[in-house]
Amino acid sequence: MYCLFYYKTKQFRSTLPIRKKWYKAKAGIALGAFIIAFGLNTCIVYPTLVGFAIAAVFIVVGFMEAYSNFKRARHEGRFVQEEYELNK
User: Fold this and answer.
1) Cβ atoms within 10 A of the Cβ of 54, count?
2) pLDDT per position as a tens digit, 3-34
3) Could you read off the pLDDT of 53-83 as tens digits, one per residue?
4) Residue 17 to residue 15: CA distance in whole angstroms
5) What's the rounded Cα separation, in Å, for the pair 39 and 57?
6) What average pLDDT does this structure show over 24-45?
7) From the CB of residue 27, how many other CB atoms can be counted at a distance below 10 Å?
8) Is the dihedral of CA 60, 65, 68, 69 positive or negative?
9) What predicted TM-score, i.e. pTM, was given to this entire model?
């Protein structure tokens, strides 16, 4: 959870546009990991059929969020150094 706040504050403080998008994607990865952890916790706390169904939804949504933001962060990470060099 702290990574999410860390990357969000880095996003707001950054002035370069690609770097802002990169930090936003990294914060999305942290949010996806948090949602997955919440789903796993739901499995443990509520071991019923309804609890497992809700946990499955959280885990799937968290995985989709983390995976899509991972792809975005990997793509934009290639251009962060180049953007920094151009704007020195």
Assistant:
1) 16
2) 788 888 888 888 888 989 999 999 999 999 99
3) 999 999 999 999 999 999 999 999 888 888 8
4) 6
5) 8
6) 94
7) 21
8) negative
9) 0.85
